Amino acid sequence: MNPLPGTLPLLSARETRYLQACLPLSTVDIGRGRQVAVRCAGDGEQWVVCLHGIGSGSASWLRVAQQLPPGLRLLAWDAPGYGLSTPLEMDKPTALDYARRLQELLHVLEVKDFVLVGHSLGALMAGAYARHLDQGEMQALFLMSPAIGYGRPGLEQRRQAVWDQRMAQVASGDMGLMARQRHQRLLSEQATSENRELVLWIMASLHLAGYQQAVQMLCQEDLLTYLPLSSSVPVAVSCGEVDVVTTPEACAGVARACSQHLQLVPQAGHASYVEQPGAMLEALQSLLGQTQALRSVATTRSSHEQ
């Protein structure tokens, strides 16, 4: 039986318990009547800050939290306009506007020495933060199935088509209907029923206004303007091998801009960290290894100069 129009899909009691136990929700007051909703897991010293994509939310990182190894502390936000997070003030925010809100959050929480992970649209926010706002506290950047955006010259028709298509899907205001139409695109055919349920529930819970702002940002941005970063910042780029949203071909272009090889995640679609959280954590540990190696070199060089 198909759900009635206007009804939101429900998360099972078991998944709800997992979410509350492994990745509990809280809100952070960042001043001037604004707040950011976050979910945290782990109690290690190494922060991993995760930025979700356009059709996702902080709860999307549940599978990663369930497998989080000792030593790591995961911080996943609901972007402005998502969940309980206060929306941005402007109608057409840029990636830098989102990044500034992230900067405020990290300042309030006193998060330092972190790896920044951006998935899909979150990669644009992460790129903007890394290019314009980082003050040496970001240890590494992990771009997962990065959305490049449609802001480059010559993409005017494509940009308008993306906007029109996205807005047509939410014209009724029924985010549950949109989620039923789109959520399968985030997953591979091998995705479990539990992962399909999770992705559908999160997408159906989006707010129309926040989603519209995010689409505006997607349409006017170009990730490649933020890349490459300084050679002192390790970067990794990954993509699900059957990603139909940000294809391996497109993600390979981002990897080349970072002078990296694309890491393909087997048996995974766009939301590879949902389907294959172990692969994400393995890549993350490798990235942290590069960070530690660079720190060791810098320390040795500094001691020789003294």
From TrEMBL:
GO terms for MF: hydrolase activity
InterPro entries in the cross-refs: AB_hydrolase_1, AB_hydrolase_fold, AB_hydrolase_sf, Epox_hydrolase-like
All residue ranges annotated as the AB hydrolase-1 domain in the record: 47-276
Pfam families referenced in this protein's UniProt entry, alphabetically: Abhydrolase_1
Cellular component GO terms held in the UniProt record: membrane
Sorted UniProt keywords: Hydrolase
Cited PANTHER family: HYDROLASE, PUTATIVE (AFU_ORTHOLOGUE AFUA_2G14860)-RELATED, MONOACYLGLYCEROL LIPASE
UniProt name for this protein: Alpha/beta hydrolase
Species this chain originates from: Alcaligenes faecalis
Lineage start: Bacteria, Pseudomonadati, Pseudomonadota, Betaproteobacteria, Burkholderiales
